[in-house]
C-alpha cells in the first residue's frame, strides 16, 4: 500500500465544517487522507454513479462502497453516505478553487488526487449537460413520434427535423459513453502504472536510506576500532617504558 499521509475529516473541510449533521463529531474520528481519496475517486470514476439510470444511483454507490471495503485499505467500514459526502466535499473544493484544502501538502499523491477529481467532475458535468439537452428535446417534440420507430410524420416538417436531431443526440451521447468507458479503462491502466512507479521510487529510497545507514555504521565501527588500537598502543608503550626504567635502575 502507498504510505499513509494524514488527511482531512471525512465529512468536513480543514476548518472543521462538515455535512454530517449531529453525527459529524462521531464521524470526525474516521478520517480520509489523500491516498484514501485516490482509491475512492478511482472507484467513482470506474462505476460512474452520477451516470447511473434512474433508481440505480444508490445501488451504484453501494457498489462503490463494497469495492472500498473489500480493498483492505480502509481502517473502518465505509457506507454509501460517507463515500458520497466525501466525493461531494472534494468536488466542492475543486469547483470553488479551494486550494488550501485541495493542495494542502506535497507529493505525487496530491497531484494524482486532483487529476482524478478533475477528470471525474468534467465527465459528470458533460453527462449532466447531455441529459438536460435530451430532456429539452423531449419537451420540444410532439405528435407523430414513436419511441421504437422514430418520427413518422412528414420528413419536410420542421418538427420532424427537431425530433431527428434529438435521436442523433441520443446516438451521440451513446457514442460518448462508449468512448468514455474506453478512456476510463486507459486512465485506470495509467493510474496503475503510476502507482507501481511510485511504489518503486519509495522502495528505491528506502534501500538507499538503508545503504547510507550501513555506511555510517561501518564508519563508526572503523573509528571505534582505531580508537581502541591507539589506546592499546599507548598501553604497550607505557609498559615498555616501565620495563626500561626498571632495567636502568638495576
How is the secondary structure organized here?
Elements: H1 24-27, H2 34-47, H3 57-70, H4 80-95, H5 99-102, H6 108-140, E1 145-146, E2 150-151, H7 158-249
Antiparallel strand pairs: 1-2
Helix pairs in contact: 2-3, 2-6, 3-4, 6-7
What does the model show?
By secondary structure, the protein is an all-alpha fold. 71% of the residues lie in helices and 2% in strands. It contains seven helices and two strands. Strands 1-2 form a two-stranded antiparallel ribbon. Strand 1 and strand 2 form a beta hairpin. Helix 2 (34-47) packs across helix 3 (57-70). It is rod-shaped and about 135 Å long. The termini are far apart.
Please give the alpha-carbon distance between the first and last residues: 79 Å
Instruction: Give the overall shape.
Output: rod-shaped
Radius of gyration: 33 Å
Strand order of the largest sheet: 1-2
Largest sheet, strands/sense/barrel: 2 strands, antiparallel
The percent of residues in helical segments reads over 70%
What is the H/E order?
Answer: HHHHHHEEH
Mean pLDDT score: 78
Uncertain segments: 1-7, 9-28, 140-154
Residue share in β-strands = under 5%
Q: Give the structural class.
A: mainly alpha
